[in-house]
Amino acid sequence: MAVRSRLFLAAAAVLIALLLGIMYVLYNYHAYFLLSMIILAATMIPFFIRFEWRDVQAREVVILAMLAAVAAVSRVPFAGLPSVQPTTFVIIVAGIVFGAESGFMVGAVAAIVSNIFLGQGPWTPWQMYAWGMIGMTAGLLKNTWIMRNTWMRLVFGFVWGILFGWIMNLWIVTSNMENVSWEFLITLYANSISHDVSHALSNVFFLAVFGASWIRTLERFQKKYDLLR
Predict the structure, then answer these.
(1) What's the pLDDT tens digit per position in 96-128?
(2) What is the DSSP string of the chain?
(3) Global pTM?
(4) Among candidate residues 185, 87, 63, 73, the one with its CA nearest the CA of residue 135
(5) Which of 77, 85, 164, 225 has a CA between 20 and 30 Å from the CA of residue 206?
(6) Quick one: angle between helices 3-27 and 100-118, nearest 10?
(7) Pairwise CA distance, residues 100 & 168, whole Å
(8) Is 130 in contact with 168 (CB distance < 8 Å)?
(9) How confident is the model at residue 220 (pLDDT cuts 50, 70, 90)?
């Protein structure tokens, strides 16, 4: 990825983090839908800037929209299993194959679209940010030994399963600032351990069973049609 593209992506990630803090201070997340729309727009900035450097192909937009839709819809059948879903797996694969900008965009879009079925709320912007960061980091590491090694991909999925839960806990913390104490934080994070581990293990399962085949298939598709290279 070009240095300029990385800078734009990093700027978008920092901007979204600042927006989360600003919206809490100003509105205490009551304007969460507005914040979700702003975050969605921010995730698209690096993507569109990248397209300014060359001709846009409609099929490139289609493949990302398809992956975001798959990531979103695949979450719904698993709604009865706390934190178990293939959404994170799809986002990681999108980042590995198509890069950090695409991974961030697929993650953010998947969060807001899946919540159309499962319910929007103050947690939506945080999900958009957390899943976006998963896709972004997968893309940033796509050409490193971490993503080239099957076992390290599993470790990556497990670690992000835990980190995702920790990030999501922050919306509860910032919504209850008057009650925050060490006891509150310890209780909150202790109670989320089972969900975080379930998410981490489901990431490992989907990456172990489907990861290599999905990556090969999407890379062949990418090479054949010269997509997002």
Answers:
(1) 999 888 888 899 889 989 988 888 877 888 888
(2) --HHHHHHHHHHHHHHHHHHHHHHHHHTTTTHHHHHHHHHHHHHHHHHHHHHTS---HHHHHHHHHHHHHHHHTTGGGTTSTT--SHHHHHHHHHHHH-HHHHHHHHHHHHHHHHHHH--STHHHHHHHHHHHHHHHHHHTTTSHHHHSHHHHHHHHHHHHHHHHHHHHHHHHHHTGGG--HHHHHHHHHHTHHHHHHHHHHHHHHIIIIIHHHHHHHHHHHHHHT---
(3) 0.83
(4) 87
(5) 225
(6) 30
(7) 21
(8) yes
(9) very high
In this structure, what token pair is assigned to residue 126? Answer: 């945080």
Q: Which residue has the tokens 């109670």?
A: 191
CB of 133 within 8 A of CB of 103?
A: no
* Dihedral angle sign, alpha carbons of residues 159, 160, 163, 169: negative
Long-range contact set of residues 169-172: C-beta below 8 Å, sequence gap at least 24 = 170/126, 171/29, 171/122, 171/123, 171/125, 171/126
Domain ranges of the chain: 3-225
At the topology level of CATH, where does 3-225 sit? Answer: Arp2/3 complex 21 kDa subunit ARPC3 (1.10.1760)
